[in-house]
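User: Hey, my collaborator sent me this sequence without any context and asked if I could get a structure. I don't really work with proteins. Can you help?
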Amino acid sequence: MTSAGRILILPKGNYNAESTYEMLDLVYHNGASWIARTNVASGIEPSDANKNYWQKMDIYCRTIDGSSNNDITDNEYCWICHGISGCF
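Assistant: No problem. I've predicted the 3D structure and written it out in structure-token form, which is a compact way to encode the shape of the chain:
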């Protein structure tokens, strides 16, 4: 059987320049959420300049109590939107 590889997005919290990331890791950096497009070596910062490594995403999250909060490290329910009008 052939492995499909990773197929789920894995939240990693705030970006850390000393960490390495795998494809589909999700990080928060400079007010935005980013998904790794490929394996990313340490020090490659999520930014539009590094679009070969990172894809900027719009994230909308709600905490368990229903309050709005876009800090992906402390939420249970998140919606990921990219280029979708009216996602919220």
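In plain terms: Residues 10-81 form one domain. You can pass these tokens on to your collaborator as they are.
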